[in-house]
Design goal:
7 helices; 3-stranded mixed beta sheet; alpha+beta
Length: about 250
């Protein structure tokens, strides 16, 4: 069940002005990475981007999964899901193993390839600003309210109402509501989400469930495999021993 806060991005209301991307740079003190924000890409210095698909624009950022795969694989506990709904990370703990990059179903975390002490970097939903009573920078900067922030319960209600009241305008799905156990970034759109570059065909089950099941199988595999190899070793050793004894006996005749 989704609790806390989140973001609702309505593709139909986005005019592609790039205010969200610019605000994200300013709030996080990030340098300019591309003079044309529409051609920018997620990186260690770009936490959200606006992409153009014909007449439509789609935002890409961390989806802040309800049960984050990145958190489940982090060896040092650098990534945490907070009560606000944001998935944050402690850069001082990060050892740069990049397991979170491999685990993320949305392929979001980026790595600081150009530094001597590289870390993982991504959107943290302006968690410090939110805790200080402010809106995330991207939400505050949006001139058309294409990006809303608030109680995830209310955002789901708003999204459902828009889909119901204008079924011809919207593709009848809330992206992020059920995918990989739900997330705290929701998207509604006039077209199927794969047409906007969002990862599709995601399971509904949280990704950590897959990890846990895999880990549960490891002991049994190790035990059964170990017993098999030990048995084979004993049989081989016994066979060689019998052959040696037979040869020795024949020699004594």
């Amino acid at each position: 069940m989704l609790n806390g806060n989140g973001i609702l991005f309505d593709v139909s209301l986005c005019v592609g002005c790039g205010s969200c991307a610019q605000a994200c740079k300013e709030v996080n003190n990030l340098p300019e990475t591309n003079k044309d924000f529409l051609k920018d890409h997620l990186s260690d210095n770009t936490f959200t981007v606006v992409e153009q698909y014909g007449d439509l624009y789609a935002r890409k950022l961390c989806m802040h999964c309800n049960e984050p795969a990145c958190e489940s694989v982090c060896l040092v506990g650098a990534i945490k899901k907070t009560e606000t709904g944001a998935v944050v990370y402690d850069a001082d703990k990060c050892i740069g193993c990049r397991y979170c990059m491999q685990a993320c179903p949305h392929k979001i975390p980026r790595y600081e390839w150009g530094t001597t002490k590289p870390r993982i970097r991504k959107c943290v939903l302006c968690n410090d600003r939110v805790n200080a009573g402010k809106l995330p920078g991207c939400v505050e900067a949006c001139p058309t309210e294409a990006t809303l922030y608030g109680s995830i319960e209310k955002l789901i209600a708003i999204a459902n109402r828009r889909l119901k009241e204008d079924p011809d305008k919207y593709y009848q799905k809330i992206y992020g509501l059920e995918d990989v156990g739900g997330s705290h970034v929701l998207v509604i759109s006039p077209v199927p989400f794969e047409q906007l570059g969002y990862v599709s065909m995601l399971p509904k089950e949280p990704m950590p469930e897959f990890t846990n099941r895999a880990m549960e199988k490891i002991p049994s595999v190790v035990v059964v495999g170990g017993a098999f190899l030990s048995g084979m070793y004993w049989l081989t050793k016994r066979k060689n021993q019998l052959a040696k004894e037979k040869k020795s006996n024949n020699g004594n005749l």
